Fold:
Amino acid sequence: MPQIKIYQEDHIPSPLSRIWSAFTDNPFAFAGLWAVCCLLLLALFGPLIAPYSPEHQDPLALLLAPSWEPTGTVEHFLGTDDLGRDIFSRLLHGAHLTFGMALAIVITALLLGFIIGSISGMMKGLKSSILSHLLDALLSIPSLLMAILVVAVTGPGLGNVFWAVGIALTPQFVRAIHQAVHEELQKEYVTAARLDGANSLQIFWYVILPNVMDTMIIQTTLGISAAILDIAALGFLNLGAQAPSPEWGAMVSQGLDNLLTAPWTVTIPGVAILCSVLAINLVGDGLRSALSPIRS
Amino acid sequence: MARYLIRRLNLFLATSLVLFLVMFIVTSKFPVEHTFALTGLQSPTSQELAQIESDYQLDSSQLHQFFAYLQQRLSGNLGISATSQNPVIDELTAVLPASFELGIVAGLIALVLGLPLGVLASLSKHKITQHTIMAITLTGYSIPVFWLGLSLSLWFGVQLGWLPISGQINLLYDIRPVSGFLLIDTLLSDSQYATSAFIDALLHIILPAVTLAVLPFTVVVRITRAAMIAIMEQTYIKAAEARGLHTSIIVLRHALPNAFIPVLKNLGLMLGAFASYAMVVEVIFSWPGVGAWLVSGIYQRDYTVIQGGILAVALIIIFLSILIEVIHTAMNPLSRKELYAAN
Amino acid sequence: MPLLDIRNLTIELDTPHGRVKALERVSLTLNPGEVHGLVGESGSGRTLLAKAILGIPGHNWTIQADRMMWDGQNLMDMSPSERRVLMGSEMAMIFQDPISSLDPAIAVGTQIIEAMPENKELPWWKRGSDKRKKAQQWLHKVGIKETQKIMSSYAWELSDGECQKVMIAIAVANQPRLLIADEPTNSMEVRTQAQIFRLLSKLNQLQNVSILLISHELETLSQWCDRLTVMYSGQVMESGVTSEVIANPYHPYTKALLDNIPDYSNPEHHKTMMQTLPGSAPALQHLPIGCRLGPRCPQAQKLCVNQPSLCHQKDRYFACHFPYHNEPCHEEPLTKS
Structure:
């Protein structure tokens, strides 16, 4: 016999499912999430589906327009550049470089920032302020200047971009996490937990960590979009990825010579950067508004 | 308040010291002769070499070396540029005003347009208007600045031919530098072409300033909107409504000053990104500022230029961010409450 | 003629659980010059009612009413800007939390001066100092002695009581005919509470301001109010002259509230169980149909699933099918106030 419900079911959703339902209520954020998932797949498997290799030069198809132009062909869907390289394949290979590299940098910076930020946030007095202010000096060097500094020491190359952007991003993570932990520590439920006899480690793990999670998530999405833009800007300035590399920013700078005759060599990688950063920002924005009712 | 200012000053000094320390360590890591990295002299004579060693105390301990380095840099000795053989400090003072000019104009554009648009976005009841404004700002926030600059110059500079796309002013005009800001100098100049030179300088600054203004503009719109929406729900706004005040007075007198506080805070946090963007914009539009100078310095491996430029830019950013923090505290009575609590 | 006459006001809120009737067919009559108490638990819609009267609705509200007469004019027919003018001149409101009702970024004095009425007879350059003088006078009237110090302070530098006095000064400066006080003494010390209430009743006597006093404490209200209205969960339970309602409650809910007041006079009652209604007030998304007290009411019967209409009897109003008195209920004719 089916149970008869007298009252409407008073189902209280868990915080996670509440965030998820708030997130999916926003169609833009959800679209962004799909786009980010696609980007992730492309970064992993892009080279497998690319029709040509990134350095393959087709001498018969120099500066071919994209396929929707009257002069374009379907073989080179997004056209070719001045050496006859297929832009579509280069974009797919570049996703791995630009997007994958940004992810790697942010994960490293997040780990480092999490360790330093939470230690300095949990500590009090001089030690804490030394640790946090030491990195403030690094924070004042803009990411591009930091990259120039790294390049000046080690020379240009994609590997150095990792260090340059990483060193520029880490202080931001340290600062955000330090402040979040520090603010959380002032609240009364932490005092209550301490009065219950919890030691610092327990307080950090069970009391503070769940409450600084949202700051970390938001900071991560901000970090990824900043990292992509920085990597691309370095590639554009020829300080990061070097000439034949299909990194998106480098592709823009390689297309510069033909800006007037073949604008698509500049436009298409630019649109690719714009779309991926936009997708990440949409997800970040959606997450922020989904998390905000809990924060306030 | 005095105590607070002294603490901020302390912070400035300490951060600058750390910065110098970082630069000192990096200088010793440059892949060239240490003396060359310090002074920019390619092949110093034995006399000059002795001078360098005594100046930078190269045979003493690391600590002494650091203090000698600090002393040299603070007294304005940044070495000479390896490419042009001019003292770096002179080149720096020549390029700084152009960067400031660009930054100030871009910042003004962002604030003057961004604040009202943010307020409008927060007050608008139409879903479509709100979504449109948010979509535009999110796109502007995500756009790679070099690509935006290229597209703008392609459109307005090349295809439409409306605006010049490189440099600060047409080279035909000969303007005597007074303040270093070309917009002011052209007005001050007593030549008969002063007005046309001013208009020319104005036309030159439009594209780079607009390109650079996109990032702060979007940030200002978004923060203003978020702050306004939060504030309009506050009890004191409801109380002001209950007093029968007109909506425009409520917005201007009560909501906007409160909304400006988080905007100011975020402007301070944005300085670093803004400087990065400014460098790229200067390179694209051949703007004779610090950024373009630094980037050409790195292309030519001009280590003294790199050091000098980074030191100057970082010091300015540290100073400005602390200044913004002080203004923030002065403007926000609530943060003064925390000061009392701290003391 | 009553100053304010509301019939069957219904406010619906759009919540994530769908549209909810937060106020259901509320009627309220307020005569000029009286202090009217509005008692109810938190969440019973008292603040909603106050804001609806004043005309500062939230963004997810839908308001319906048979009539909302303010001194002969129907408030429902007025445009928002007309309501705003009315708010400034004839109605005023003070809020639960006085500190957050003052703008934190502006000195208190500026806000008081801003609210002072402009004397149109003076030349414009003298109006500023005139407003300032008036602000100081009003601060004196509400019992603040160091006017200079208060006016140059920020809201967070003052105590709750001082802020509430400032809010009262701002509210009465335009000489309104109705002052809505929404829990004006919430979370204040007893001494400050007494000061505020004394101030309000003095204003009522001297300036002839009608006051709608909202509180959850029946005891305090019974001390200061001429008439009482009891609300529960968005419905009016009972309304009448204070002394009669206290002495002889018709509605089970009023009686329950009165039973909740501890009786210290009779030593035999010491250590007996305090009388309370079973259960708790329903959440907004689970409102019962009919009389919302139904599930908790000791008198409830089958009929209670229909909402009882407000009965009128000798200056007493009550909404109950089975009231604590035996005379039959006459349906209230709508024309009579």
Observations:
- Chain B has a mean pLDDT of 83.
- Residues 18 and 24 of chain B are 10 Å apart (CA to CA).
